[in-house]
């Protein structure tokens, strides 16, 4: 397996519960890599959707993955401040080349003033039925939505003041 190596590129692979690929981010620079935590940075990276369509991210982003959290957080640096996109997901695994997780549909969008919206509840319910999410997974995911909201309100982890800016500076040091 191996640990992610700081400064090295990795791909990020998002899957659905049924094992099908959902989305691939082509290249993210590893800024911190341990057994439990991966922080990555990217800017204008190619993203490939499950149907083969591609698009390019518009702004620099810092990605936060923790092995004990059923969510991951992407902090996007925009002109009006940091916007966060949080995916409710399985904890990550790293296979030596790619960071992988299962995307469970629910998302939280956080604005620079730290207000937020829970998104895609209808999609979650549809996929929960179609892919037969076990009750235990449903309970874990709902608890982690609550945990994520607490982190946002408490400015914890990737939501802490200066977290994204500090890691973005580190990302820039690898780009030189």
From TrEMBL:
Domain DUF402: 18-156
Residues the record lists as binding Mg(2+) 1: 87, 103, 107
Domain of life: Bacteria
Active site per UniProt: 23
Reactions that this protein is recorded to catalyse: a ribonucleoside 5'-triphosphate + H2O = a ribonucleoside 5'-diphosphate + phosphate + H(+); a ribonucleoside 5'-diphosphate + H2O = a ribonucleoside 5'-phosphate + phosphate + H(+)
Cofactor: Mg(2+)
One Gene Ontology term of the molecular function aspect: nucleoside diphosphate phosphatase activity
This protein's UniProt keywords: Hydrolase, Magnesium, Metal-binding
EC top class, as a word: hydrolase
UniProt EC number: 3.6.1.15, 3.6.1.6
Any Pfam family the entry gives: DUF402
Residue sites binding Mg(2+) 2 per the record: 105, 107, 120, 123
Purpose: Has nucleoside phosphatase activity towards nucleoside triphosphates and nucleoside diphosphates.
Family: Belongs to the Ntdp family.
Protein name: Nucleoside triphosphate/diphosphate phosphatase
Species annotation: Neobacillus piezotolerans
